[in-house]
Structures are given as structure tokens and as C-alpha cells.
Amino acid sequence: MLNGLNHITIAVSDLDVAFEFYVSLLGMTPHAKWKQGAYLSAGELWLCLSLDASRPSGDYSHIAFDIAEKDFPLMRETLNQAGVKQWKQNRSEGDSLYVLDPDGHKLEIHVGSLQSRLRSLREEPYEGLQLFD
């Protein structure tokens, strides 16, 4: 039985550039950095940056990070001022900013939770929706 998410590893082509993006722009906490990688955290999430050939997904797969509603406007402004590219406009419940990291990995900065998403689905169900609660 799985207990939850342990960590996420992202391949990055330039460790210093990726480290600066995730720490200085996104505000992650650095814990360790070495020639081939780095360990960062955001809340309980452990993120590993691994120096390797980066091949970002071309599909909808992405990593969504949680942010408090009160912090969202400053994050949006910070990322916009830094010229971070967006890959999608938000059409779902809760504020979201869909951005690309320096290697083109798709990220989402999201205000909300599973519970807020399920509440919104009860109000405006997706086609063929089944709820299991």
C-alpha cells in the first residue's frame, strides 16, 4: 500500500540555472547541492534536480505546486517580471499559473486542493464524471 508521494526528480541540463529558478523564483528551500544534482523542498515535497539530458514531456503531464491564495499574486508578478514562459491559461477551479522551467518542464502553481476541485466538479461536472465518495 502506498503512503503518498516520496519525491520528484527532474532532469535538468544546467544545474545552476535550474537551482536558481527553483530556489530564487519559486522559493523552494535548498538542502544539498553537488556536481550532478540538488535536493530542494517545498512544504513536505522533496524535489531532486538531476543533471542529465532533459526531455520534457510534450503532453499534458505536469507538476502542480501548492500556493496560498494570499501569496499567489506576488508569485504571478515575480514570474511574469522574470519573463518565465506560460504554457497554458487556467480554465479550472482555483487560481493557477502554468509555467515552464528553464528546461521546458511543465509546472503549475495552484491555489486549491483536491477537496475544492471535487466541490467544483459537483457544481460543473466533467463529461462522464464518476465520483467515489
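the 2nd protein, sequnce then structure:
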Amino acid sequence: MTARIDICREDPTSPDARALIDELNATMLDIYPPEHCHHMPAETLASNGACFLIARSGDKVLGCGAGVPLDKDRVELKRFFTRPAARRSGASRAILSRVENWARAEGYSKLVLETGSRSDAAIALYTSHGFAPCDAFGEYRATEDNVFYEKSIASEELFS
């Protein structure tokens, strides 16, 4: 039987959130050069109106992810991370679905993200969830270490 995973919206400056963000930062710095790591601090997430979510199973903190409004149409996915022991548990998929539902309910029409070009598990997650490659956006510049994805989440209008 699979353990229940609960997804809760939380303050990105909470101790659990900070611990996950610190682990994510360390992981990324082990793989990519610092100039290609786009670490958004917890305070920035909080001040930018992010929907920051944490996945838990019982008393275990499994992972996190956030949707950060970019403009009136787009939300950027940031700070997605699952602890190694919780990988393949469904935590990241659950967080991604909840962020998408939040963004759609808030009236956004597109999700965008930047991830590492060697982050195979992340790329597989995003592509299996309907994301397609796109050009660099915002302040990002394309390098050999990053890739960009987008997904339309515009609500379908019903015509009578």
C-alpha cells in the first residue's frame, strides 16, 4: 500500500521550506556552475505572491514546488525538489498538478519554466505533464546548462 501524500500551501520562509530550498540549492550546485543556477530565495518567493507547496507523508517532508506569477498571463514554476528517498513517490506530480490548478483558478493561461539540461528526471516530469520546449523568457539566457518549457493552461470556453 502506498503512503498518503498531503500537499499543503506554506510560507516559503518556514523552517521546512528553507530546509528543502537549501537542499535543492546544494544539489544544483553539485551539478551546474553557480552562474547557471537560478536560485530564488524564500523571501523573494514570499514577496512575489508565490504559491509555495510542500508534500508530506505523515511527519516526513518529501519535497516542494512553487508557482510564481510573472505577468498577467504567465506563472513560472520554481523551486521544484523532491528529497532522494521520496523520488518516484508521486510527490512532484502532485505538487505540479496543484500548482497548475492554482494558476488556472487565478486566471493565468500559461506555465513556463527553466530547468537544467542534465536534470533528466525533471525534464521527464515536465514533458509527461504536457510541457513543450520553448525559447528563453524573462531574464534568462539560453546556455548549454538550461532548457525552457511551457504549457498552455487556458480554460476552455464553452459555447452554447
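Strands lie at 6-9, 51-57, 60-69, 74-82, 110-116, 132-133, 146-152. The radius of gyration is 15 Å.
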